[in-house]
Amino acid sequence: xxxxxxxxxxxxxxxxxxxxxxxxxxxxxxxxxxxxxxxxxxxxxxxxxxxxxxxxxxxxxxxxxxxxxxxxxxxxxxxxxxxxxxxxxxxxxxxxxxxxxxxxxxxxxxxxxxxxxxxxxxxxxxxxxxxxxxxxxxxxxxxxxxxxxxxxxxxxxxxxxxxxxxxxxxxxxxxxxxxxxxxxxxxxxxxxxxxxxxxxxxxxxxxxxxxxxxxxxxxxxxxxxxxxxxxxxxxxxxxxxxxxxxxxxxxxxxxxxxxxxxxxxxxxxxxxxxxxxxxxxxxxxxxxxxxxxxxxxxxxxxxxxxxxxx
Length: 310
Fold this sequence. Notes:
Layout: E1 9-11, E2 16-26, E3 31-39, E4 42-47, E5 52-55, E6 59-62, E7 73-74, E8 80-82, H1 91-94, E9 102-105, H2 108-111, H3 115-142, E10 155-159, E11 170-180, E12 183-195, H4 198-204, E13 210-213, E14 219-223, E15 229-232, E16 244-248, E17 252-256, E18 263-264, E19 270-272, E20 284-286, E21 291-294
Parallel strand pairs: 1-6, 2-9
Antiparallel strand pairs: 1-2, 2-3, 3-4, 4-7, 5-6, 8-9, 10-21, 11-12, 12-15, 13-14, 16-17, 17-18, 18-19, 20-21
């Protein structure tokens, strides 16, 4: 029997009742212990031990009547954390569900601080506040490189002739060297480049040319609307995960983030999922030799507006 999937239809013995909205994992056994069933505008936590009669990718059948859901515990989101907020070693060996919002119960110690714990932490905070004026100058000196303005250097992404068909994005890898504090690091990144069709150009540049400004509001670069190429950040604006270009059963060819199931059309518009904004367009230009160059800007994830962080 397959494991339950998010958005699978849920059937009781007498009728269809709703769908799976969340999956809850036992952090000790590393197995699915409960399902959150959304039915009649109510979410209930249902233990699956001995209750599932059958399960496929699209449906879950329970061995109970629909009336039994009325006595199930209501789902309270604050009682759980996502598996991205806790570290459970080797969870992927036991969990084989489609990626989505998989939850873990919040430890009781985190939900109910004792009086002694409260005063212990309060004392620690007071001590830190008294010590801060003494250590601030040292910390400021050591972290000074972190407060430097963003670098707006142009980086080579790839050749424009690698983009064969308009409207079909191509992932391009490139190397980047950055100074983090007093340490220089070199690593590989990737973004998505695409030749524009007239329709995509109108969708991605509805207000004409796209301006990019620095933290002081000064103009850094302008992407011209009549450009034949666009480059989009390879990080999902939800939580910064990498996404893919693939065929989606509902939307056809689309960008799909496998971590939390956000879906974007070729122009970067959000079609489904928790992403708060469209895919981020990057400053780009094409040199006389046909080389695509970019300014590798990064924006804060999880916000509807763009806030540059690198």
